[in-house]
Specification:
mainly alpha
Length: 71
């Protein structure tokens, strides 16, 4: 839930990290259901690369693979 990660998101953001949900969207606090789809906090230069790896992994899972290396 959003408030479970609020303090960590603030600390990471203040330290210079880019903080988004697992889809790369900004985390919206006080949303109607209070849920966030994962959280990604990374250095701004690394964030797009890590997000690409998450998307690659998710595509593998959707295709029935456990990891991107398995097909």
């Amino acid at each position: 839930y959003e408030w479970d990660i609020a303090a960590a998101a603030l600390i990471a953001s203040e330290a210079g990290a880019t903080v988004t949900d697992a889809n790369g969207a900004p985390i919206r606090f006080n949303g109607p259901d209070g849920q966030v789809f994962g959280v990604l906090a990374a250095a701004p230069r690394l964030h797009p690369e890590v997000l690409a790896l998450i998307r690659q992994w998710a595509a593998g899972v959707a295709a029935g693979s456990r990891s991107p290396d398995n097909g």
